[in-house]
């Protein structure tokens, strides 16, 4: 029996990735809103990571995940896998050159572009951004956050602001609780820790962008 490990709304489609009985491939199904069935795409040669609970980010009309690719006769390697919502085709994107292979990595969105966060346990988090989508040479390391700044185990960008501050979701090392932290990379310091009274230690959060376009219309803004 497969395990549902990733599902994500994107405009008018729901993508579901299910781990198969085999350790080296996953099954993909797509549901179009308004229909009554799931379309099975195919089995793909990847296992998908859910480090920190992040299951996919939408950039450039595609969903992105960190996955491992298995090649017979060699160790599994980490890759960024993208799924184009329009043509329903999977692609691989290159990791940055110089990325420490000991880091736990996850993807996010920063300033509208694809970003990658490399976490070296109890040392630091490197934050990279792909300035020219799909081009490996455009990966740029924006900054490094030492762990003593936030005492974090996991970090994900939620929203960047015009004055340079970035709102991050972090998982704290001591208790494992989730917190929201406003970080200023220019000053290399935490501006504030946002506390939500009565909120449980673990919760989900996303940046919300309002729209006058109904999902039921079948139309969306580019």
UniProtKB/TrEMBL annotation:
Domain F-box associated beta-propeller type: 13-165
Pfam families: FBA_1
Protein name as catalogued: F-box associated domain
